């Protein structure tokens, strides 16, 4: 049996995520957050690992996002929790840009 691999899904146009901006949407039942920081785009879980709260209203700076509820900060590239109260990472997803569209693989 050949394993099924996830395909890339169109997320949004590049222009919809300005520098230090972000956009959230559900892909295949998973809340994904695309962030733009330091001229790079990242796709991560939109859910904080600390108390399962949305990250969409958090601040994006220096390739990290800060949870708006308790201040936990996560590395956008690796998902690593950078400070307490979070101790677990958030999921990260593969992202690519095709014809000015951001596509994410969940």
From TrEMBL:
Domain Rieske, chain residue ranges per copy: 9-104
One MF term in the entry's GO annotations: 2 iron, 2 sulfur cluster binding
Keyword annotations of the record: 2Fe-2S, Iron, Iron-sulfur, Metal-binding
CDD domains, sorted: Rieske_RO_ferredoxin
Pfam families: Rieske
PROSITE patterns: RIESKE (PS51296)
Gene3D superfamilies: Rieske [2Fe-2S] iron-sulphur domain
Protein name per its UniProtKB record: Non-heme iron oxygenase ferredoxin subunit
Annotated organism of origin: Pseudomaricurvus hydrocarbonicus
């Amino acid at each position: 049996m050949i394993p099924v691999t996830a395909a890339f899904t169109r997320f949004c146009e590049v222009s919809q995520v300005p520098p230090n901006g972000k956009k959230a949407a559900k892909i295949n039942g998973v809340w994904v957050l695309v962030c733009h920081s330091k001229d790079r785009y990242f796709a991560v879980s939109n859910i904080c690992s600390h108390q399962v709260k949305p990250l969409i209203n958090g601040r994006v700076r220096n390739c990290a996002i800060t949870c708006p509820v308790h201040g936990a900060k996560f590395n956008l590239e690796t998902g690593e929790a950078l400070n307490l109260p979070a101790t677990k990472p958030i999921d990260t997803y593969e992202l690519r840009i095709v014809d000015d569209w951001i596509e994410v693989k969940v």
